[in-house]
Design a protein that fits this description.
Structural class of chain A: alpha/beta
Oligomer: heterodimer
Order of helices and strands of chain A: EHEHEHHHEHEEEEHEEEHHHEEEHEEHH
Structural class of chain B: mainly alpha
Distance between the termini of chain A: 31 Å
Radius of gyration of chain A: 23 Å
Largest sheet of chain B: 2 strands, antiparallel
Number of strands of chain B: 2
Strand content of chain A: 15-25%
Number of strands of chain A: 16
Largest sheet of chain A: 7 strands, mixed
Radius of gyration of chain B: 17 Å
Shape of chain B: elongated
Number of helices of chain A: 13
Shape of chain A: globular
Helix content of chain B: 55-70%
Strand order of the largest sheet of chain B: 1-2
Helix content of chain A: 25-40%
Distance between the termini of chain B: 39 Å
Strand content of chain B: 5-15%
Largest interface: A-B, 50 and 38 residues
Order of helices and strands of chain B: HHHHHEEH
Chain lengths: 537, 136
Amino acid sequence: MPWSADVVIVGSGVAGSLVAARLARSGVKVLILEAGPRVERGAALKQYADALIKIPECPYPDAPYAPRGRSDNPDHYLLQNGPDKFGSTYLRQVGGTTWHWLATTLRFVPDDFRMRSRFGVAVDWPLSYADLEPWYCEAERELGVAGDPNADLDAPRSRPYPLPPIPLSYLDTRVAAAIKGRYTVEPTPQARNSQPHDGRPACCGSSSCIPICPVQAKYDATVHVAQAERGGAQLVADAVVTRVDVGADGRIAGLVVKRPDGTEDRATGRVYVIAAHGIETPKLLLQSRTDARPRGVANSSDQVGRNLMDHPTVLSWGLAAEPVWPYRGPLSTAGIESTRAGAWRNDHASFRVQIDNRGWAWPGGTPSSTVRTLLKQGLRGEALDRALSDRTSREVGLATMAEQLPLPENRIVPDFDQRDAIGVPRPRITFRIDDYTRRALEHGQRVHQEIFDALTATDVQHGKDLFGAGHVMGTYRMGVDPRQSVVTPDQRAHDHANLFLLGSGVFPTGAASNPTLTLAALALRAVDPIARVLGGR
Amino acid sequence: MSTLTRRAVLAFAALFAACGGLFSISVDDFLTLSQRLTGRQGLDRQLAATYLNALVATPANQRMLADFMGFGGMSPEHTALENTIIEWWYTGTYVTGGETKLATHSGALMWSAIGTPAAGTCGGVFGAWAQPRRPA
C-alpha cells in the first residue's frame, strides 16, 4: 500500500519524533517510517530480567528485518574494517536508542563550535553556541531536563532548567569532598524526572537506566512519538526504507520501503526527513546510488558516511576505604565537567569524567563476579554476606569519555556483498581512534588516579580497553560549503531542496558531551526551515 | 502432575539410575543442603529443582551429592561443588550442557546480601541514593 504525506520522516528516535510532534501539532500531515517494531515496556522489562547478560540491548528485539549491533559483540551486525573496533550500538525500534540511553543532557560548551578558529583543530561549526542557545532551552523543556540552577557547566543559560535537580548520590558527595579544591564534582543535567512530570513519575532509583527505566521516569522518544500520533501523525513500524529516489529536478521523489515479508511499498511526500542516526542514515543515502548518482544521494561532497565519531571511553575502578554505597539511584548523577574546556585543546581532546553509581558492574561484572571471588577465598554464610556487602559498598567506578577528531577515513559504507535477512546491505565500518583522543584518555585516567588517591582507595585498576559511548556522530556533517559538507546549517541537504537530515550525524565535531541534547536542539531548530520548504519558500 | 513435581521426579530418576538405585537426592533434600550451605532459609523450591536437575546431569556430581547427605567423605572436589551450589543461589545463574543460563534475576541471593533490590527494581523513595545505605 503506498503512503503519502506532507512530510515523510524516516526514523522515530528523538530527532524524528520531536520534529514529527511539532509538525503534526501545527496541522501538517506527517508520516513516520520506523524500520523496527513497537516495543511494549512490560515485555521489555521481562526480557531484561530474563537476559543472562545485561547488555544495553538485552531488553529489546533484534528483528531480522531491522538488525542492530550488540555491545558484547562488535561484529554482530557491523562489518568492521578496523584498525579499531567501532564499539557503539543503536536501537532500531519505535523510540530509537533513547530506550537505553543514560539521559545525560549536557550542552556543548561555546568552544566546541569553533575548534578550528580557537585551537587550529578539526573544523568550526557553521553556527555558534549563541545561535543554538535558545534551542537548547527548547530541547530541555521538551525532554524535561532536571538540573542544578547554580551550575551552568561553562555553557551560559538564558532560561532555568525546567525541573529541579536529581540529587547527587552518596558516592558523588564523597568524591566531591575528597577532591575539593582540585576538581569540582558537578551535578549532571538529566532528562529524568525529579518530580512527576509530563504524565510520568519521578525516578525510583532502579539503577538500570541503561538498558531500561522500569517506570519511564527517564525520557525516551516514545513520549514524542505519542505526541505526534495524538496530533494526527501516522507511524508505520516494521517499515525499512531501502532506497531514496531522486527526480529529474533534483528533488527527492519518493522512498522505497521494504516490509518484513519482503514486499515493497512506496512512500511519497513534499518534504523528506531522514533521522535514522549516524550509521543507518548515511548507509541509506549511499545505497541509493544510481548511474546518474554513483556516489549516492546528497553526496556531491563525498562526505556522506565519513567523519564517523564516537566518544571513546576508558574505565578505572577501585575500592574506597569507606563505604560509598553504589548500586542505587540513576546510573550516574555527577561528573567532572571542567575538563571539557581549556586552552590545551590544541594538544589533546576535551573529556569528561563520569562517576558511576553502579560499582564495578561495567568493567567487572559485579556483583556476580565478587561472589565467585569471595567463594574462592572460602567464605560462606554470614561471612560471605558480610564480605559481599562490605566489598560492594566500597566499589568506585569511573569513566572518561573523550572527544574524537572527524577523520574522513573513519567512515561507514554499505557492503553490497554482505546483506541482512531482507537483502539490505550491512554497514561496513573503517575506524581509527586518533592520538589527540588517546592523549585525553590518558589525562582522564590520571584524574581517576587522583580521585582514588583522595579516597585512599585500594585495588585500583585502569582498564586498557576502549569502549564506545553509544554516541554515533559526524557522518553527514553540516556546513556552509557544499563541497565540504552534506547539509546546510538548517540541516537541509545541499543537493536536494526537499531533503533534511537530522541527528548527531550532522555534527562537524563531537565535543566531549553526550550528544542527545544538542541533536534535539538542532532538530527543533530545523522545524521552521522544514515548514518553509513545505510552504514553497 | 505439576512441572515442579515432574522435574523432581526426573531428577530423582536420573540419579537413581546413575547410582544403581543405591542413593537419590530429592528436591527437598537439595533444599535442605542448599539452606545449610547458604545459611539462608526459605529458598525457592523451583529454583532448587532447576539447579538440582543441572547438577545431576553430571555423574560425578550425583556421587558427591550423595556424599553430602552423609554417605561419603569430603574432598577438594566436594568443596568445589559446594561452592558451585552456593554460587548458583547467589548469582541466579547455573550451567547446564556446558552453557551458562539464568534461573532468576531478582531472586539471586547476592542482592539481599548487598542490601539493595535487584537492578531494574525500584529502589525506594526518590533521592534515597543521596543517603548512606544502612548495612544489610
